[in-house]
Amino acid sequence: MTALKETAARRPKPRTCVGWHEYPCFDRHKFREKRTKRKREEEEEEEEEEEVEEEVEEEEEEEEEEKEEKREDNTQRRISTQDFWRRRKPLEAYRTTGWRSHTNPFATEEDDDDADDDDDDDDNDDDDDDDDDDDDDDDDDDDDDDDDDDDSGCLYE
After folding, report:
1. Is the sign of the CA dihedral 115, 101, 94, 85 positive or negative?
2. Whole-angstrom Cα distance, residue 107 to residue 95?
3. Percentage of residues of the chain with pLDDT beyond 90
């Protein structure tokens, strides 16, 4: 037994708890310190993960907001252009479509009336020259042959 006492005397004495109990609790203190360190580290890691997740969510929300703003801007532009053309449509449609000349979109009624009058004058001239009509018919046949050649090269037939 004395040998056991001597070996125990050589070992460092454990720290005693300063609390209400007097028996040695060295291991308990170490365990508590390790446990608190682990808890702190875990809490810090969780906080960092939460911060990273929050940042990612904020970035996604910002991107979504930007997309929504772009959509709203595009719809506003589309609406404004539609309003513009709705306001302008009666004028432009009257000028460029229908019975008006498609070659000149800015033609006025007077121009179209003059063009119609010129056609009427040509009709009257044709009545005077019967011989020219026969020649015109022959020329028309030749023109048709030329048109057929032009149409054969057309890609949209």
Report:
1. negative
2. 7
3. 24
Compute the Cα dihedral for 102, 104, 106, 111 and give only its sign. negative
Look at the block and give the residue holding tokens 């506003």: 76
> How does DSSP assign 30-55, residue by residue?
HHHHHHHHHHHHHHHHHHHHHHHHHH
Q: Enter the pTM of the model.
A: 0.32
To which H or E segment does residue 128 belong? helix 109-128
Q: How far is CA 57 from CA 7, 51, 60, 61, 64, in A?
A: 62, 10, 5, 6, 10
Closest CA to 13 of 22, 24, 27, 21: 24
**Strand, coil or helix: 16:** strand
Sign of the torsion angle spanned by Cα atoms 36, 41, 43, 44: positive
Strand partners, 24: 16
Question: Which of 43, 50, 14, 9 minimizes the C-alpha distance to 29?
Answer: 14
pLDDT in tens, 36-87: 999 999 999 999 999 999 999 999 999 999 999 999 998 888 888 877 777 7
Angular region, 71: left φ>0, alpha ψ -120 to 50, beta rest? alpha
**Overall size of the chain counted in residues:** 157
